[in-house]
Design a protein that fits this description.
alpha/beta, about 240 residues, two-stranded antiparallel ribbon, globular, Rossmann fold, 7-stranded parallel sheet
């Protein structure tokens, strides 16, 4: 098994990229040659006539990575929608064989690798299993065509999971459901990282939410990170 972690989250916009950047930076600052990889990114940014994978570019800048965008991300889609829809609209669907090759190359470039997921843990990456009926435009399933979910990529890279959550209202439910889904698929979970700590202004609520997440899941809270933090605040684990 390669050395590294797969970073997933309780949902979109929880802060996976921010946390992943701090993780890569902390490992590199500690003398560990850590790298970054992401299979599919949607919502690229147009800069000076070129489409930029914003998440990967952010991690690259924060952690001072030498890798090119092509080495960091296998599939970059323009529209900020779920990868399966972006891939269908752009005609460039994800192939697990390419993900496997690119991940293997990233592992050979670095001694430790952080893989960032797309969206939440149940994110469709590719879905060819439909066909529009000419009469009523209803979606009909076709089991003979490829469907890829984030869990397929997680299985492909075979790394323990880090789950990013917040401690805001509703976080207990989202975190526990994410953990239980991962466990139902037999994934190894290293622990939970709480992002945007203190953002609600109600630390009593947030601390109690964190306590309940830890109690219900039995997982370690690895770090509590504020939105403006420049460092993860803990040593590599």
């Amino acid at each position: 098994m390669s050395k590294g972690y797969f970073v997933t989250a309780t949902g979109t916009d929880v802060g996976k990229t921010f946390i992943t950047a701090l993780l890569v930076k902390k490992w590199r600052d500690s003398g560990i040659d850590a790298g970054y990889y992401k299979a599919a990114l949607s919502g690229a940014e147009l800069r000076d006539g070129k489409w930029i994978a914003g998440d990967a570019d952010y991690v690259k800048r924060v952690a001072n990575l030498p890798d090119t965008q092509e080495q960091l991300v296998s599939y970059v889609y323009k529209e900020a929608v779920s990868p399966h829809l972006a891939a269908r609209k752009e005609g460039n669907p994800v192939e697990l064989s390419k993900v496997a090759r690119d991940f293997d190359a990233a592992c050979h470039r670095h001694e430790f690798i952080f893989v960032e997921g797309s969206g939440g843990i149940i994110c469709p990456i590719r879905d060819d299993s439909y066909a529009s009926a000419e009469s009523d435009k209803k979606i009909s399933p076709n089991p003979n065509i490829k469907t890829i979910f984030l869990e397929d990529i997680m299985k492909q890279v075979n790394l323990p999971l880090l789950i990013v959550t917040t401690a805001l209202l509703g976080s207990i439910n989202a975190c526990v459901l994410t953990v239980e889904y991962a466990r139902s698929r037999s994934f190894d979970i290293r622990g939970i990282i709480v992002n945007r700590y203190g953002e609600s202004g109600n630390l009593e609520m947030e601390d109690d939410n964190i306590r309940m997440m830890q109690k219900i899941t039995g997982l370690e809270i690895l770090a509590k990170v504020k939105s403006d933090d420049k460092d993860l605040g803990v040593e590599p684990f």
